[in-house]
Amino acid sequence: MLANWRVGQTINALVSDRMPSGGLLLTVGRQSFVTTRDIPVQPGARIMLEVQQVEPKLVLRLVSAPVSGFSTINGNTVIGGGAAHANQLKGQGLTQLMAALKAVSSSRSVAVQLNLENYARLLASNFLNSGNITAETFRAAFMLSGIFTESLFSADRSTQAARSTKTILLAIRKSIASAMHGSGLTAEERAALSRLLGNIDALIGSMTNHQISSIPQDGTPPRWVSSLPLQWGEKLIEIEIEMQHRPSTENEESPGWQLSLRFELDALGAISIIIGMRGNRLTVDILSSEEGSTQYFVESMPALKNQLVMAGLEVNRITAETVSKSEQTNKRDAKSINVSA
């Protein structure tokens, strides 16, 4: 997208988050970048920026932005030093959280007081399991990942909303905050709970970022962004997921869907899977950072295609290629939902 930007062009950016450095994480379409200057606006707001320089470094001028207590800020504010590309949305940090829960649970009195073992079981019940991944378990994990929590409550689906990972985290947070305001904790226990609270806040913040990233933007198709935990043996792997809906076109009567999955495994390296579907027609493109993994996927393709055909799908394309982790994002963006090829 940046390659299409021109000096003098005005862009509408969504403020996705405020970074620890004070800069802002901005999103324009599918591109995210971090400003090097603080702007007093809240996440969820939109700001207008003018492109002043593209190469060798992106430099933008703030045209206008809504600010609490003011109508707008505008004028000649330049985002000094340009904007640095943000990393792609990473996993939510459930791995760190589960480790922190385990560490705090080593203090039996605290574990019992806060019911941490039960909370850990509730969180784990929303994980995918490598030995039992089906369409239904995947759908359930996606719905309970945290980005639909408020929607579930507003749709009067409170039972399902209560099982959401975000709801569970908020309950843990409330319990910890109450315990820390009381007495009877040792200095070590308070320090451990403080670290756990930090893990929870970071995780909830990540879910909020995913929710903001899932807000429809001008001229772009609807999309949903989240992170799904996968229990892989003794390890917890986080799968970054992005789902897009494409409306029907003049040449295509039925709407289309595109699903992107990104994860890393020690044995396979960095993997990206892009699935496009329109009607019952399907394309599958697999990108792997390791040549051995690519070969494994190539050898598995006939069996995969047979299974898809037996499920009533028309397979237009299945590919696998070796692409470095750093280049997989560009390759994913280049893949089209067009299933005619």
Task: Find the structural class using helix and strand composition.
Answer: alpha+beta
Query: How many E strands?
Result: 14
What portion of the residues fall into strands of 2 or more residues?
A: 25-35%
N-C termini distance: 24 Å
Task: Give the overall form.
Answer: globular
Instruction: Give the % helix.
Output: 25-40%
**How many domains is the backbone divided into?**
3
User: Count of helices?
Assistant: 10
Average pLDDT metric: 80
What composes the largest sheet?
7 strands, antiparallel
Give the strand order, joined by hyphens, for the main sheet.
6-5-4-1-2-3-7
Q: Secondary-structure element sequence? A: EEEEEEEHHHEHHHHHEEEEEHEH
Salient structural properties:
alpha+beta; Transcription Regulator spoIIAA; seven-stranded antiparallel sheet; seven-stranded mixed sheet; 341 residues; OB fold (Dihydrolipoamide Acetyltransferase, E2P); globular; 31% strand
Structure, explained:
With 341 residues, this protein is α+β, with helices and mostly antiparallel strands. It has three domains: 2-85, OB fold (Dihydrolipoamide Acetyltransferase, E2P); 94-211, no CATH class; 247-334, Transcription Regulator spoIIAA. It is built from ten helices and 14 strands. The protein has a seven-stranded antiparallel beta sheet with strand order 6-5-4-1-2-3-7. The chain has a seven-stranded mixed beta sheet with strand order 8-9-10-11-12-13-14, sandwiched between helices. A hairpin with a 2-residue loop joins strand 9 and strand 10 (235-246). The protein starts with 9 loop residues before the first strand and ends in a 7-residue tail after the last helix. Mean pLDDT is 80; it is low at 67-78 and 80-91.
